[in-house]
Predict the structure.
Amino acid sequence: MSIEDRSEYLVETRNLIKRFGDVIALRNVNFRVGYNEVVGLVGDNGAGKSTLVKTITGTYAPDGGEIWIKGRRFKRITPKIAKALGVEIVHQERTIAENQPIWRNIFMGRELTNSLGFLKIREMEEATMKLIKEMGFKSEIIYPGKLARTLSGGYKQGVQIARALYFKADLVILDEPTIQLSLSEVNRVLEFVKDLKKRGKSCVFITHNIYHVYPVADRFAIMDRGRIVAEFWKSDLSIEDLSNILVTIARTGTIPVEYREINLVSRPLEYASS
Amino acid sequence: MGRISDAFSLVWYRYRIQVAVFVLFLALWALFFALNPFAFTRPFTYTSLMSTMPFTIVPALSLTYVIICAEIDLSFPSVMAWASWVLATSWTHFGPNLLGVILALLAGLVAGFLNGLLVTKARIPSMIATLGTLFFWRGVVMVCSQGFGIPLFMYRDALLFKLLVGRIGGFFPAQMIWTIVLAIILWVFLNRHKFGAHVYFTGDNRTAAQMMGINTDKILIGVFMIHGVVSAFAGILATLEVATFWPSLGEAYLMKSIAAVVVGGTSIFGGSGTIFGTFFGGLTLGLIELGLLAAGVAGFWINLVYGVVITVALMIQVLIRETEIKREAREILSKELPSPKS
Ligand SMILES: Nc1ncnc2c1ncn2[C@@H]1O[C@H](COP(=O)(O)OP(=O)(O)O)[C@@H](O)[C@H]1O
Ligand SMILES: [Mg+2]
């Protein structure tokens, strides 16, 4: 078998292209996520980070290229397939129905039903109660029947993360999960990512705040104007290096010469066996 | 705060609109009873209420689905007439049998499907699309009937006729039973079925629903089709009640049915609403109409009163929404300070 016919990554894109009219949001993007790996996807606003993960999870159909998930190749993918393959995404936009209770929000689009489509309400409420405890919500004010619109931003984010938790994803993609969160709420999200890693799962953490992502990531991918311009192991970089690189890329579109040696773009990734 | 009072306030919060509508209904009834004890102690008054209200309430029940989706359907009065013409024509040719009823319901289904396509595939705002089909189906009825009515009173003794609009025990209108049965079915599907869950999501946050994999176009087409069939059923009932097809059938119900839905507490902003509310909203309106007539107010006033009722109900909705948003913002700030537990 030639290398083109297989993918050793959990998720990989090859020459992925996405256009919105005249705007080319993804220009031949080669992105990869390994098994049990936390990837920090960073880059300026408008770099194409959200478009990349939305294409991987089926919200957008690509205009070219391939998506590989668990060794299977797709020309395009639907949200259903992505979820069935264990890829969950917490979108940057809130995917919350404000007038619905927490339990209905957690199961939005994936309700537990009998064969006739009638809802298993008791089961969903109980599962929600368990998730609430698991996530360390203050259970005296958060209960499954509480309406989403009475929740603060952090808890709404929590409801979205609880979906990924319930449906036992192998890869959780978090698109700007820490935006508009208080300090302790940010910490809770970071704890969740560390916990994923501990349980052998993978995570893509999108942010433009490198102070949030640096402590939890294994590797960084840096996007700029529709391209992945650099990838580094965290072990090769300090947080100052990373910030230095991002500033230079924003200014010149290229990475500083002294880091080119350790740039992983278009090289196979060699995971340290541990 | 204790668990019991918490549970109580949760239940109250969830059902507050239903309770409000129900209390309004009882209060109005008590008021009219006090004003006119003679009219409101006679069984005939209630037979009359229950024989005419189904034509308002039935289309309002399925219209509730449409409005929860944050859409509107203005075409159903004409769809009622279109189904009515199909029924009358079929019965005239083939006799008073189930075939005519089935064809009439299918006629409603087709009309609903067309509305669904216009809104989802042609992407015309439902307010405009269904205004178009309101005129279209009325036009079809006019062309088909040449403006003439079709008498059906010779079928009064047919079993089907009695089953649909007969008087049980000589006084209880069968159409009220059908209305209640339909309300229960639509309630079950809205609250206990996946379809109903998706109806709420489609109205509450359509982009989110789509991102979570819900095919909102399919839901919308389904909702318009349900409303088409149910409106057709209302058209059948209205036709049989007076045993005549007439070309302007349904026109009276546009305002009334919309009023029943909004008085019943279904939010015109989409995402929330109840079948229970619509049912008692409709009964309340019937009561108002009856009360006014019993009090000797001329029939000309009825439309004016409906206009006022709708406007006031909408104003209350906007007010409630604004105060609730403010109150919730305050609560979130005061209660949910970041928790140290993690
Ligand atoms: N649905 C869309 N329609 C049109 N243009 C879009 C859409 N989504 C994103 N874009 C454009 O694609 C580019 C990348 O956007 P995005 O992926 O949201 O960036 P990021 O998430 O990195 O901030 C931007 O120029 C943006 O304007
Ligand atoms: Mg983004």
Notes: Confidence is low (pLDDT under 50) at residues 338-342 of chain B.
